[in-house]
Amino acid sequence: MLTVENLTVRFPTRFGDTTAIENININVQAGEIHGLVGESGAGKSTVGAAVIGLLQTPGYIAEGSIMLGDTDLRALGVNQAHALRGKRISMIFQDPQTSLNPLMTVEDQLVETILAHEKMSADEARTRAIDLLEEIGIKNAAERIKSWPHQFSGGMRQRVVIALALCTNPELIIADEPTTALDVAVQSQVLDLIRSLADKRKIGFILITHDIGVIAQIADRVTVMRNGHVVESGETAQVLGRPKHAYTRALMSAVPPMDHKIDRFSVPTTEGIEGTSVSTGDLAEQWLLEEKGLSEGEQKELSIGLSIEALDVRFSGTRKSLWRKPEDFIALDKISFNVKPGSIMGLVGESGSGKSTVAKTITGLITPNSGTMMLGNEVLPAGKSRSRKHPSRRIIQMVFQDPYSSLNSRHKIGSILTEPLWFYGLEKDPAKRQELAASMLALVGMAPDAIDKYPHQFSGGQRQRIAVARALLARPRFLICDEPTSALDVSIQAEILNLLKDLQSKFGLTILFISHNLSVVRQMADDMVVLRNGVIEEAGKTEDLFERPQAEYTKKLLSLTPVMPKDWA
Amino acid sequence: MKKRSLRHSALLSSVLVSLAAGVSATGASAETFRWASNTDPQTMDPHAVNSAPVLSFLNNVYEGLVRRGEAMAIEPSLATSWEPLVGQNGWRFHLRENVTFQNGAAFTAEDVLFSYQRASSEAADVRSWFAPVADVTVVDDYTIDFVTTAPNPLFPDSIANFMILDKGWAEKNNAVLPASDAENFATMNVNGTGPFVLSSRDPGVKTVLKPYSGWWDTATHNVTEAVFTPIGNPATGIAALLSGEIDFIQPIPLQDAKQVESRKGFKILEGEETRVIMFGFGHEHEKLLYSSDVKDANPFKDPRVRLAASHAINMASIDRVLFRGKIEAASQLVPAGISGYSEKNAARHEYDPKRAKELLAEAGYPNGFSFGLKCTNDRYINDEALCRAAASMLSAVGLKAKLSTGPVRDYWTQLRADDFDMYLLGWSPGTFDMEHPIRFLLHSQDDAKKLGSWNFGNYSNARVDELLPLIQQEINPTNRQNLIDEVVSITQKDAAYIPLYTQPLIWATKENVDMTQRADNFFLLRWVTVN
Amino acid sequence: MFYFIYKRLIQSVFVMLAVAFLAFSLFRFVGDPITQMTGVETSVVDQERLREELGLNDPFISQFGRFTVDMLQGDFGYSFRTRQPVAEMIASRIPATLELGVVALLISLVVGIPAGVYTALRPRGVITQTILITTLIGISIPTFVIGIMLIFLFGVQLGWLPTFGRGETVNIGFWESSFFSIDGWRALILPAVTLGVYQLTLTMRLVRAQMMDVMRSDYIRFATARGVPMRQLYFRHALANTMVPVITIIGLQFGGVIAFSIVTESVFQWPGMGLLFLESIRFVDIPVMGVYLVVIAFFFVVVNLLVDLLYVAIDPRLRV
Amino acid sequence: MKEFIKRSEGLWLFTRSPAVMIAAVIAILIFIGAAFAPWIASVNPYDLGSFSLMDGLLPPIWQEGGISQFMLGTDDQGRDMISSILYGARLSLLIGLSAMAIATVLGVGLGLAAGFYGGRFDAIIMRIADIQLALPAILTALLIDGIARGILPPEVQQDLRVVVLTLAIALSLWVNFARTARASTFVEMNKEYVQAAIIMGQGPIRIMFIHILPNILGPLLVIMTVDLASAILLEATLSFLGIGLAADSPSLGTLIRIGMQFMLSGEWWILWIPTLFLVALVVSINTLGDFMRDVFNPGLR
């Protein structure tokens, strides 16, 4: 049905034209879900945009043909192409939060889209819209259709988005990361919906995603892309189960398995990191170990634990009326857990479960309503009562989720890295600070000359390494990693996870590892806690929890996470 | 505008102006006469405020015992004749009979007495006119006596703007006294005996007058309705005139006169006001306030320094460039034509920078000195430009003037606070007699006797102080002129002030309108004819 | 939401009081009302007596207290210059200024929004560049020069429009309006254009920037991807979403319009509050100046409140 | 050279937009002319002794009566127009730049603090901003002018008019900066680098100025250019309303105000030459501001 041949897209820049994708061939049949997988920068989205004719200016199609049935999409005029959009090809975007016009009701948007393509009365369009909503699984659609987008939850919103894409019975839907912003439970429902639409309505899908698990779960065929080229293409089971190409194999091996724990990830390719002489990191290593002159083994005994007792956090709600008191929102409901010295504790939960609130409370960003926190044997003052000079400010360090915003983009790497040394008074001599920072970069696997560059000159994975280096330069004993890899590609994720593991074991760090990704936690954590709506659902040894989950919620989470069929791996 | 400049300047104004020159304005309607001025009369109460816009406007509605003719001379109005009282100081006025107010009430001596009481009350701003009056007595319905404390030959001249209200009307409407803090009936309503009656008033926007059919005098105007609009921005005013929306405007900026005149259908009325523009000094200050080099002395105490300043000013070039040849240089504090003007002392200190430098050297300042010159920028025609030019001329002889200009709203306050070294002042004698400036500007300051109240620098000369009462009381014109000549000669020698020029009057009107331009800048509708 | 409005009201009162206080304190420095109120021949003694009567010798705080208390009781005092009640003077001038301001604002919206949309959708076009440069030149010439230029062009030269004033007005109750006569409208055009040109440029540039931003948003891309007609896309989707920030700025600008109307009114002899205020400054008419400022602050506060309500009307997310 | 230009996005864009280049050339010429006015101008228009009324009202050289000594003619005082304009631009730019600088420091400081602390502090700052917005610029100018006159000794007042005017303009412009800085700070506050700094225990001053400020400079720079232009225009307007500078030390605005008197009298150059100059200056500053916004916000291109 859709045949893309030799598609090449170029973007003119001040350095001349750059090629975004080159010689892409893709074939999608009716009722087929065609997965398009690859890491960021692979050109997946450009393929989708080129097919629907919405390339970001000034990009242009340099070569190739795109045929939808008998229609040559490249031959269409501007108006014809626009008329075709929605009618025969539609598209779903990643974030349901931003995909809907916030100022129009769902009904308006549906009716408008239907009327744009079909000759019918507004009433008929409305009836059709309601039917559509029913079909994609919105209950009480006749009522709900009058709502505004913000009145739907994330999953429901993505359903509305799909309904909008379905309005006029398109032959092809391009779904660009349709579930990336969703929790696992919702993700699974949306994927089911897509599958059933493909089967029932015989719609062809191009499913663009970086999540190999998702592909494995629903795609019929898959195309693996890298740097604008097709690496491998074919039946899903064949490509993922018996990959021919080395890249695909490496990619598969970087995916953390859900069903067993592995020691280290085998890293597919390098960003030119391993090549740097590891010996330059010796200085930093020595420095990290030299505290009180202990050897590597003894250092571990200095490890510090954290115990949390009945921690309760409430946020005051917005006042809705003059006479009513605002209702509090309970973020954490008297939770207690214990992070053993020198261990990694995993904290798992869906969005809104309170994971990040835990991290913020421990770091003092949030003042809890009640509860105590003990760092080692000492009480950790909470929130605002923790003085700026409190020793825990150094002992507890944090690695954030978004490597793009966690480094100040206007500061050089050197100044970012030496800041803790200077600030905590760990090293008085500025020259030594530079030296140490450079060495720490080597320790986390980066070239020491990065010190003179700015964050934007690095990729996400490299930035996350820098963030880890910054945390280490405070000589921490306790590290909080809040979704440290969720913004990264799977191969980079593997590298960072390896790095964290290595450092943890070498320096006897205690780590609180926060993630929504169960398979990652399984690889990383000794113990884990499952959090839901501010309440601990289950806690225990990681292996026990995965093998013998007790709580219903944990079971559900485990069952919904897309996994690759065992025989593929 | 020169024809040539058109070819060279593609800029809009020239084009506009030149193109417009060919378009004739629409003719003024004989029915309605529209005129504009830059200030709205702030009240309709003739006694509340002693300001030219109010008095000028109300002269169309109210009348006094006497009035001024086209040439400023006193002529009978509500009084048909007057003579000095016999046996005591003062004047007797014989009132006109068969005069009715605009509400129909008859005019009698009681109304004059009432108006006197009203105008001399504490709430009246014009009460200073009646400072010499000891008593007023009604002799009969049409005769009234004003008794003065001393012989006062000028008294009838000084009350030309003393307007008569109807006693009954004022009492009925609770306007016995001028409004002092709140409004009263008379601030927005009128009831005079004059040629025009107020038809509607929207303060600051529009005031409409209609002829009063019961006026005692023969109307020489042909105006059936007169609409007054204040227009503050001079350019807007000119535009309104040129577009035909108004028939007459007073005053216009003098640099625009040529442009208006060059257009078909418009003309300019030029004349001289009675106002003399002058510089004053801080005679009594111990030291200069604004000097950067002379800190602890006041060179202006020395008449030679003041004389030097006077010799430094080139009136001819000020006239040519700034005033486009429209001003008359002044030698004394009143212009020629005002009673008491000293023919004997008509010569100005001529422009002589060399002499000025010599005088400065004699006074001990061969290199001059710096000082502050204070000026208004919104009070007199071209006041700011004048001061800039003067400062430049003074600097040329070594009198390095630091100019500071500001709006008039706090200018007098600064002058009263002695916050100046040298300053600009314009003076128009309210009585049209030389005695007026002598009393206000030349006599030593004396708050109790209300003398020298605008003599900010406190110029003080014992002989002048001695001469003022003599002048005030002298009935014989020749003797009186001699006394005045003496004052003028003393103050000229002393260079008490530097009189500069008489302020010009530039009015613009449609060509088909005839009117009289009076030297006090009053515009009276009764002299308007629209052809 | 009611709580929100309630909070807003409290804040507004505070803002107005503060403006009144600031305003009042500045009048002490503007000049001396007495010398402006009296003629040249008035003696110093009489001036002093008048000053005492008007309470100008009282301590500043008691003057301000009296001013505030009187005002809260609805007594706005009397003008020093004309002796008329200030409330009446200002009230009679409000319609002129408001009508001028509203029409100027309308011009800026009616022209500015489409121009902003156009220049956003065709960012590289010749027309766009022309519009951008012309408006830039328009706001670079001081308002007073533009006003006089327009007067001479349309009033004197072409004779199409009046050069000053409001023309014929119609009274509707206390409201004196120029909206109900041809003459009134003709008189309104030039000053409104003069006043509106600056706002127009601001509005246009703002709409343009916002529009360009919105056009890149996901929901516009999604709407494009499902083939919503272009016209609907631009005007229903994009423009509506542009409006939220635009309204804020326009609301703030209304204050600017009223303030800048001082210049426009003085050039066109437009009998509004600004003209009255300028005259009041000239004559140091403290009561009028004080009330003017409070009225301005009141407008500002009301407009701000309206803007907040308008937000709620436009954006369903704010309707809690 | 070409490679060097390509390395910087801004420079590259610059070389590709002729309008921006022209604007830059004009702006630079005016800035240089203004900065070096005392060395370029033939006379010092502020020195009363250096010109003569005798030379008054001479037209530009290409018009009949013009003389080569005064290329663009003279005003009613006999001042050379070129010199007046150069000195006027100098003063206008001085006022504009310092007003902008003060407004920036004040506005950005308050906006940063409001965004950083939020809550009650933010509310108070924003209400102060409201009060400022409710006071038109002319009134602020009157207020400052009045206070200065009330507290300063007379001999310095005249010299300080520039300061007074600058302060008045700065006060009416700071709100823009405060609002923008506040909004941007709110955005930055949610970024993790700020949280990292807070967690470390760094002081608020350091976080605000070392960490946040460099990240919000982009939009502020745009406002700075736009406000520089408005400051220059505002000064002209205040001058028209009679609270500007004295006529003997004119800024561009004052020159235009004075020139208005000659709109009809035939001496067109006294009004239109400074106006043309002001337009050129303001348009080029604004064009550069637009260009900067485009560079800082690539999405708008």
Index terms:
heterotetramer; A: 569 residues; Rossmann fold; 6-stranded mixed sheet; 22 helices; globular; B: 531 residues; 11-stranded mixed sheet; 19 strands; ATP-binding (chain A); ATP binding (chain A)
Question: Explain this structure to me?
Answer:
The complex is a heterotetramer of chains A (569), B (531), C (320) and D (301). The model of chain A is unreliable at 270-278 (pLDDT under 50). With 569 residues, chain A is α/β, with parallel strands linked by helices. In chain A, a hairpin with a 2-residue loop joins strand 14 and strand 15. Chain A has 22 helices and 20 strands. Among the domains of chain A are: 2-88 and 170-254, P-loop containing nucleotide triphosphate hydrolases (Rossmann fold, 3-Layer(aba) Sandwich), CATH 3.40.50; 98-169, no CATH class. Chain B is α+β, with helices and mostly antiparallel strands. Helices cover 28% and strands 22% of the residues of chain B. Chain B has helices at 3-8, 12-20, 52-58, 109-119, 155-158, 167-172, 185-188, 234-242, 257-261, 303-312, 315-322, 353-362, 383-396, 411-416, 435-442, 462-473, 477-494, and strands at residues 32-37, 66-68, 74-76, 79-84, 90-95, 133-140, 143-148, 196-202, 206-211, 225-230, 248-250, 266-281, 328-329, 369-376, 399-406, 422-427, 498-510, 513-514, 529-530. Chain B is globular. Chain B starts with a helix and ends with a strand. Chain C folds into two domains: 2-72, no CATH class; 87-318, Orthogonal Bundle (MetI-like fold), CATH 1.10.3720. Chain C has helices at residues 2-30, 33-37, 44-53, 60-72, 86-121, 126-140, 143-157, 182-215, 218-225, 230-268, 273-282, 286-314; strands at residues 170-172, 175-177. In chain C, helix 7 (143-157) packs across helix 10 and helix 8 crosses helix 10. The radius of gyration of chain C is 23 Å and the shape is globular. Chain A binds chain C through residues 52, 54, 82-87, 90-93, 95, 98-105, 109, 112-113, 116-117, 148, 150, 161, 164-165, 167-168, 318-322, and chain C through 1-3, 6, 217-219, 221-230, 232, 236-237, 240-241, 314-317, 320. Chain C: It is found in: Cell membrane.
Work out the helix count of chain D.
13
For the secondary structure, the number of strands of chain D is 0
- Interface with most residues: B-C, 60 and 54 residues
Mean pLDDT score of chain D, rounded?
Answer: 83
- Secondary-structure element sequence of chain D? HHHHHHHHHHHHH
Overall pLDDT score of chain B: 88
Overall helicity of chain B: 25-40%
Largest sheet geometry of chain B = 11 strands, mixed
Strand content of chain D: under 5%
* Biggest β-sheet description of chain D: none
Q: Classify the secondary structure makeup of chain B into a structural class.
A: alpha+beta
Strand content of chain B: 15-25%
**What is the CA–CA distance across the termini of chain B?**
28 Å
| Total number of helices of chain B | 17
Instruction: Name the shape of chain B in a single word.
Output: globular
General form of chain D: globular
Distance between the termini of chain D: 25 Å
